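Researcher: Please predict.
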Amino acid sequence: MDCYTANWNPLGDSAFYRKYELYSMDWDLKEELRDCLVAAAPYGGPIALLRNPWRKEKPASARPVLEIYSASGVPLASLLWKSGPVVSLGWSAEEELLCVQEDGVVLVYGLHGDFRRHFSMGNEVLQNRVLDARIFHTEFGSGVAILTGAHRFTLSANVGDLKLRRMPEVPGLQSAPSCWTTVCQDRVAHILLAVGPDLYLPRPFCLVFPLALPQTPPGLAPGVSSFLQMAVSFTYRHLALFTDTGYIWMGTASLKEKLCEFNCNIRAPPKQMVWCSRPRSKERAVVVAWERRLMVVGDAPESIQFVLDEDSYLVPELDGVRVFSRSTHEFLHEVPVASEEIFKIASMAPGALLLEAQKEYEKESQKADEYLREIQELGQLPQAVQQCIEAAGHEHWPDMQKSLLRAASFGKCFLDRFPPDSFVRMCQDLRVLNAIRDYHIGIPLTYSQYPQVLVLRRLYPLAIQICEYLRLPEVQGVSRILAHWACYKVQQKDVSDEDVARAINQKLGDTPGVSYSDIAARAYGCGRTELAIKLLEYEPRSGEQVPLLLKMKRSKLALSKAIESGDTDLVFTVLLHLKNELNRGDFFMTLRNQPMALSLYRQFCKHQELETLKDLYNQDDNHQELGSFHIRASYAAEERIEGRVAALQTAADAFYKAKNEFAAKATEDQMRLLRLQRRLEDELGGQFLDLSLHDTVTTLILSGQNKRAEQLARDFRIPDKRLWWLKLTALADLEDWEELEKFSKSKKSPIGYLPFVEICMKQHNKYEAKKYASRVGPEQKVKALLLVGDVAQAADVAIEHRNEAEMSLVLSHCTGSTDGATADKIQRARAQAQKK
């Protein structure tokens, strides 16, 4: 095991990277790779070399030669180039070779050198010539990006459906950018270029800023005057920048987040820089190549360095980087977790112990039993078997694959119910992979790549058959392939929308893992809007239907779908989109036909757009709600008393129109109260505005304006009981006991005299409370006496009333030390009552 990890190189504390040989190349190159235009297809695809391109140091009579090899160096095709000067080569997803000429014409050749077709990148490119070109891949197909002699960019995102886009001008670009690349954001391909210390991302559909605006990567080290190289990851999610200060900045392709930065202490521009990452891995690394040095950098203070004995070329892959030269073809990648746990030095992972146990078993050593018992005691034997199976899939050499699978098979023998499916499937997968990796076939696919390559080559029936043979889960296998097939199907413009939609639905049905909205988005991208709408009818998730319908400007249909879903957030999204899209009248008419949407929009307007809410009520002649609106507005928006009264008058008129006389009268009373409060403030000073009627009366009493308070009570018909309570509370708060006594004797109290006792005791004035206790009626006499603390007299009254409840109440207030005689007296009265 120690020997096996000799080519492992740590990058930080959490990841190892290894580089191993795929093939020994026997292609007998007559020139160095640096003297050729080179293009290598991903997913272990073929390599194209255009020898002796138009270089000044070569004699003019030397004709270029285009040669195509497999990844193992086996010749596939060779032809003399008889067309114009070529600027760039690249492979499409269908493994067609695209040759971009200086005049903007792109020639397309097959895998075996057969000419397929050609197309032009436009008259502007023809007039200004091609300075540089890139072939890139997106979910829509393979695209071509051109930099012209006028320093303008033109691109097509799909060479199968050629639509040229001229990118916005970059201000101040008088010469070729120091570096540039293509990125894909929001399903649209863009150009990212560097001019001095600034980055530009021209957007072709931006009408507000017709010129591209400079951007700066977040957290970039100071002192950068230019970017020398840039690389976008295989999935277009991440970006790497090499600066003239020797720093490598890594972050998201949107330039919104920085991942890390590394100082490589080399200021010379690299020949190539590519990303090296593994699917579902949190590690991010970039591979940088100079003439004789290869460096792997990531979020770690150190880097991994390799010496290159000869000129090499890097090919980014889904899970690593291929490195080929005149003599060798190697693969550099992050060591998978399963392999790392099994093979790292002194590993005690269950998979490592199981592999050792199997080796000792073959030696007939008793150590095999010791290792096996150790795993079983920890209950990790199923995990050990699974680790060995997974690690076998990531190993390139058959001998190591067999060793790991033998260990897994050995461990399975000691498990009663371990499902054999994963073991059998891995054996099948590795048979397929080892067969196509053979030198004569030369497709060095990894375990992560090979299901994908058949789809990219549009070998859908074969891909489905392999998935079924290997018994892959439907979501991971057949569903993904069918989704790719459907996206390809919508591009067949010679078939009607009805036929395409029906064929896709018949083939896909309710297949799990397939999103009809993604297929519809592809149809819309191809200009087939009606087909996209038909496909969306099969999408069961409204949350996926609505955004695409809005993008297609089918807002009313989107509103209907959102309402059917019952998702209020979705409805709000459509409503706000409709509000910006339609004029005011059409928008309101649309809402009137959708009661649920209208109700939700009213709720939104109550918090965000009050004037719009008023217009809605006016249009619907909803006078009741309009009156309520004006009442809220009178307090929320109006500070002057005149404006507030005017708003309340409008509200009262609306309530009369709604035939709600109670609300109208209440509103008019509020108007009278506001006017009176303003007059009181002018005459008496103090704060009266916005007080309630009761608080106004109380304030007047506290101010000594008893007559005004009584007049106000008469004007607004405050009941006597309520007025007595207000006056009682106010006088007690003032502690004006003399005035309170006069008030109590002014006439018979409508609320009785127990409240007087309670209020006095609340103010801790027992002396005043006793005055009123004697005037309390018989039914509340006991309670009043208890409130003032006269337990003995309360007992006499309770005995006199012969009321059991009152006697129990008095007893509850008796204490053993001071009221023992009173308690005995009540008990004797109870006993006498029971005898009778």
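Model: Residues 44 and 443 are 5 Å apart (CA to CA).
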